[in-house]
Amino acid sequence: MKFFVDTANIDQIQEARALGILDGVTTNPSLMAKEGITGQDNIYEHYANICDIVNGPVSAEVISTDFDGIVQEGRELASIRSNIYVKVPMIKEGVKAIKQLSDEGIRINCTLVFSSAQALLAAKAGAAIVSPFIGRVDDTGHDGVQLIEQIVQIFDTYGYETEVLAASVRSPLHIPQTAQAGADIATCPFQTINDLFYHPLTDIGLEKFLNDYKKVNG
Ligand code: G3P
């Protein structure tokens, strides 16, 4: 399973990369705004900076919601660096644009996916990645992990190569759950990646090993 970090914060991306387990980065307009990145030139420059840190896919999201706008913006984003995946929302105009951009060889991450039917549409249009937002599904009283299972099963049945990316991850538990469900990728907030390392029995066990060593070795 690939691990992406879901942030536009350069320090966090560098720290995640230093851990040696980072495969890519996802951003969205909210995460860019959180970093105070405004204006198209600055936004594109920020994407370039992220791409230069990460040896893997970096998702950069379009703002346009009409076919022509999404296609134009998608081409611009894809030209920033070769590891850009263009994030396109799951709307009718978005699906049409996914088909066009995919046919041009631009890799697409279809975002804001909340049903297996939407995932199927994105795969049919040629998306490289679909992003079901499992935390937001959970928020509505439905089961986000079950949605991952359904999408994985459909893609396996029909042989779609589209990767399933578990997005809107909210807790460390989501990671093993989505891994077990067959997700190809999980994108996590930086804090959630850090939380994955912790287990109290590891700390207790390590302390005992070191104390026992010191008792006999001084
Ligand atoms: O990758 C999408 C993610 O950033 C959304 O997360 O927590 O805003 O639902 P959240």
How would you explain this protein's 3D organization?
The chain is an alpha/beta fold. The protein has a single domain, classed as TIM Barrel. 53% of the residues lie in helices and 17% in strands. The protein is built from eleven helices and eight strands. It has an eight-stranded parallel beta barrel with strand order 1-2-3-4-5-6-7-8, surrounded by eight helices. Helix 4 (67-78) crosses helix 5 (92-103), helix 5 (92-103) packs parallel to helix 6 and helix 6 runs parallel beside helix 8. The protein starts with a strand and ends with a helix. The protein binds SN-glycerol-3-phosphate. The site of SN-glycerol-3-phosphate has 9 residues, from helix 7.
Briefly summarize what is shown.
This protein has eleven helices and eight strands. By secondary structure, it is an alpha/beta fold.
Strand content: 15-25%
Elements, N to C (H/E): EHEHHEHEHEHEHHEHEHH
Present as ligands are: SN-glycerol-3-phosphate
How many discrete domains? 1
Distance between the termini: 43 Å
DSSP helix fraction: 40-55%
Largest sheet: 8 strands, parallel, barrel
Give the oligomeric state.
single chain
Mean pLDDT equals 97
Query: Could you please say which CATH topology applies here?
Result: TIM Barrel
As a whole number of angstroms, the C-alpha radius of gyration is 19 Å
* CATH C-level: Alpha Beta
CATH architecture verdict: Alpha-Beta Barrel
CATH homologous superfamily grouping: Aldolase class I
Q: SS-based structural class?
A: alpha/beta
Numbering strands along the chain, what is their spatial order in the largest sheet?
A: 1-2-3-4-5-6-7-8
